[in-house]
Amino acid sequence: MATVVTRFAPSPSGALHLGNVRTALFSWLLARRAGGRFVLRVEDTDRERSSDESVAGQLADLAWLGLDWDAGPDRDDGRGPYRQSQRGATYARLLAQLEAAGHAYPCYCSPAELEAARRAQLARHEPPRYAGTCRGLDAAARAAREAAGRRPALRFAVPEGRIVRFDDLVRGPQEADAAAFGDFVIRRADGAAMFFFCNAADDALMGVTHVLRGDDHLSNTPRQLLLLEALGLTAPRYGHLPLLLDADGAPQSKRRGSVTVGALRRQGYLPGAVLNFLLRLGHHGAPDAWIDPAELAGHFDPGKLGRAPAHFDPVQLDHWQREAVRRLSPAQAAEWLAPMLPADWTAARRVEAARLLQGNLLRPADAAGWVGVLGGDIAPLAGEDAALVAAAGAGFFESALAAFADSGGDLRRLAEGLQARTGRKGREIYQPLRIALTGRHDGPELAALLAAIPPALVRERLANAARAR
Ligand code: GLU
Ligand code: ZN
């Protein structure tokens, strides 16, 4: 069987948002599950909207997610270059080839003439399409227009009487009547090849076998198939993914403030969380349990790609983030939390703190309060917490201070000492202790917290609680 080659072809006009990387992920998985190749092509023919900064940012985002590419702008395999802005000579050659073979012809119509023709068609209740005015121009007629200084566009001569059929990887059998297209422009009068021409030609030249892309490109596909046929190039199979919608139902787009990969990374989301989240967006049948990123490809089935738009659900993303954070080793967790931890903490203390807290955090920023609990200040007691501490009474915390002097950071021994001194037990002991020591009634195991809080702070907090009322 021939090698599967897939690609991701972003336009570098901004940051990658979740909709883009979902397309990238599915394409990558399609290649990886088959032991195939995944290539990265930068579609930067729109010079005005493209920037090197965006290219670098997009590559960094993909690398961060672990979506590695076998060929790309930074890694040629002989079929590059992988930036469309560097492929102008290739497009020119192919366009000339089409023209020489009679599959394309120069069109000298001015914008005003085209607009007038369009209006006339609309007035006759005909769908507007290029009327074919320049298709039959002979050499003399062309020369006359050239001599008048007219700069032609190049139009593809759409073959007559063709129904274009293809089997979409996601949407199943599709067909389009080529008669509806009209002869379309493949090179503008300024000499620039049209986007969908470059896109189709590159897929074929780069040996791409399977294209997954957003269904905003579905209407390009029949034209691209005709172009590749005329060029004598093998077309890939196409699959069109429904849009990813924001939580509010609007499409995820780079021009709106949608969720970008960079924003998630800066907030401390982990690649594994984003990947587990995306795998289940518009793709069914993956198990409910966490999948290690190295095993994702085994759980991807292009036959299970949905046709309905998927919605971005932040609750689901956080679910996978919780799973990812739980799975960090203490050393990894310490690195993840590093920006939040005081600079003067030893490596051992950082790892210990991270190990203790990781089960209670979604993002590093969530650790702010806990870092205070472990080695700084706790929030002043308020509301029900303050009432519980007051109700426990000054005598309880004085006893706790005395018991702590004997037990040190060992919670079981502290509780035994407190029980012996006060006759209280269980929740009556642990709840006021937890609140006095941490300022809150939830969080990591109290025994681990007690062991991690410096004894001087434990004494200070117990003494404060004894004074509370
Ligand atoms: N550069 C196009 C885009 O970002 C790619 C289209 C395609 O994947 O074929 O929408
Ligand atoms: Zn024309």
CATH architecture of the largest domain: 3-Layer(aba) Sandwich
Using the CA coordinates, give the radius of gyration: 32 Å
Q: Which runs of at least 5 residues are low in confidence (pLDDT < 50)?
A: none
Query: What is the arithmetic mean of pLDDT?
Result: 95
- Main CATH class of the largest domain: Alpha Beta
Shape: elongated
Strand order of the largest sheet: 3-4-7
What does this structure look like?
Strands 3-4-7 form a 3-stranded antiparallel sheet. Strands 1-2 form a two-stranded parallel ribbon. A two-stranded antiparallel ribbon has the order 5-6. The chain contains 19 helices and 11 strands. Helix 6 packs across helix 7 (221-231), helix 9 (271-279) crosses helix 10 and helix 15 runs antiparallel to helix 19 (455-467). Helix content is 45%, strand content 10%. It is mostly helical. The model has no long low-confidence stretch (mean pLDDT 95). It binds glutamic acid (GLU) and zinc ion (ZN). Glutamic acid is lined by residues 9-11, 43, 199, 211, 213, 217.
List keywords for this structure.
single chain; 469 residues; mainly alpha; Rossmann fold; 19 helices; Glutamyl-tRNA Synthetase, domain 3; binds glutamic acid
